[in-house]
## 1
Amino acid sequence: MHSFRVSMGTISALFAVCWLLVSPSRADDKQMPPIKVDVLQKGASTSKVMEQALADLPLDQLPAESRQRVETVLKNRSLFRRLPTIGMGADPAVYHYFTRNPEAAVGVWRVMEISQFKLNQTAPMQWKGDAGDGSNGSIEILHRTASRQLLLCEGEYKSPVLPKPIKAQAVMHLRTDYPDKAQSNHNIVHDVDLFVTFPSQTVETVAKVIAPVSNSIADKNFRELSMFVEFMSTAMHTHPGWVEQVVQRMDGVKTDQKEEFLKVAATVFVASRKNELQQNGVQNASFEDLIAPYQGPKR
C-alpha cells in the first residue's frame, strides 16, 4: 500500500492539475446549466496505439537539445497511455486561454477552495508546481501550435519515510481539433499521449503492477479537467459577474493575465447574448439588451 501511495504521489507531481475534482453546482443565484463532456473514445495502452503515438510526435520540429531530452524519455519509457478522446462544447477562446495560462486555472481552483496547489511561471514556456503534500514538479512546453502541444514534465515525491525522493519524467502530447460545426456537436475534441519513465527500477516495477488503477485515475481526471474548461466556458456565457469576482480574488496570476481573462469572458458573454437575442428576433442588440437579464428590478 505504501508503494502504491508513493508511486501515485510521484505521478501526481507531474500532473497535479489532473487530480482535482471539479463539481460546481451554483455560481450565484442562477442555476448553472448542466456541465457535460463526451468521451468519444476510451483510453488505451496497446502497442498499436503506442506506435501511432510515437509516429505522431513532432520531433522534427524540435531543436536538437530538446529532441534529445524527449528521446531519452521515450527510449527509457516505463509506461504509456493515450488518455480518452473527449469532445466538448466549450468556446475555443476559453480553451485557448487556459492551455496557455495554466496558472490561471490553478488560481480559479484556489478561489473555489478546490485545491491549494501552487503553479508559478518561471520562464515564457516553463512552470513549477507544488501540491503541498511532498509532490512537486515542473512543466516545459517544447513545441506549440494551434492544435498541438508537446510538454516535458519532471516530478518528484518526498516523504520522511523515504531515504531519498522518488523521481519521474514524462512527455505529454496534447492534440486538439476544432471540428466543423456543421458536422459535429463539439467545438473541441482533444486527447493526450503520455510517456512516463522512472529512473528507479523498483518504482517502475510497482508502477507497472498498478498501471490498470493509475490508468483509470488518469483517464478520469483528464475528463474532469475537460469538465473544468467546459464549466468556465459556461460560466462566461451565463454568469459574467461571478467570473469577474473570481478573477479579482485570484492570487499568483499576473495583472495582464487577469485582464486577458476578463477580455475573453466579456467576448464570450457578448457573443452568447447576441446569439440568444438574434434567435428571439433582435438583430441589432443594444448594450441595454445585452445586460438586461443581469440588472436588478427597475424602480
## 2
Amino acid sequence: MGSAIRPILNKVVVQVQKSDRATGGGIILAGSSKEQPLTAKVIARGNGEYVNGQKIEMCVNSGDMVLIPKNSGTPFTLEGVEYIIIPQSEILAIIS
C-alpha cells in the first residue's frame, strides 16, 4: 500500500482475496452462489478502543487472513486498489 492508511479505534482495513469459486473469466461455478463469507487479508488495524472504561484489545494483526461477511463494511479505493474498512467485531474468524 503506497499511501499509509491508519484506521482508528476498532476499525480494520482488509483487502478481499480472489475467490477460487470463479473461473479465470469470472464465471461463478455452480454451488458457490450461497452467501459465503469472504476471505480477506488484514492490511492495517486501529489500536482498539475503550468501552465503559475497559480497553478492548485488537485480536487481528496486519497480514492475518480473516473471514468477513459478504457485503459488510465500507468499501473504498486507494491508489486504484479496492479495500474494505470494517469494525473488528464484524470479523468472523482468523484463518491460520
## 3
Amino acid sequence: MIRIRQAIVVEGRYDKNTLRQVVDAPVIETSGFGVFRDRELLAFLRRVAEKRGLIILTDSDGAGFVIRSYLKGALPRDKVLHAYIPDVAGKERRKRRPGKEGKLGVEGMPPQVLVEALRAAGADIEGEEARRPGEPITKADLFELGLSGRPDSAARRKALQARLSLPERLSANGLLEALNLLFTRAEFLEQYKGATDD
C-alpha cells in the first residue's frame, strides 16, 4: 500500500472501496453526477484542493469524462492533478452486464494499474521522489505530427490513444495533458517516431 499526500476524487463507493485497498490517502466520492447538485461537496473539494491538493480519478467512459470536465472547471487548476485509467473492455465482478460502453471502471482496474495512473499524474507518494518534468509537449508538437489541424487529425489521435492505452474520449487538449503526465517531450517524440516507423 502506498501513502499519498493528496486526496483522491472518485465517482462512487465501489471505486472508493477499491482504491482504499491500494492507497493510504483520503478518498472522496462524488456520488456520480450528484456532485453537479451538491454545492457543499463542491465547496469541500475546493477547500481540500487548497489545503492538500486533489487527484481526480474517474472512469474512462463518457460519464467519467463529464464529471472530470465539470470538476476541472470548478476547482483551482493549480491544485488539481488528473489521473487516467486505460480503456479496458470488460465488466466488474459485482455486475451482471458490462456498463453502457463495455469498459472497466476504476473499481475493475488491477491495483498496479491504479498505482501507475496515480504515479503518472504526479501524486506525492511517500518515500518516492517526485517525477521531474522535462521539456513539455506542446500544441505545436501535436500540429507538427499531424495530430491537430488536419482533416484526419481526429483519426490519428484516436490511433495514437489506442497504441498508448489512453482513454479514447480525450479531446486534443486532453490528449496533450495526458501525454505531458506520462512523457517528457523527448520520450514522446521517440515513442511516436518508433510507432510510425513500423
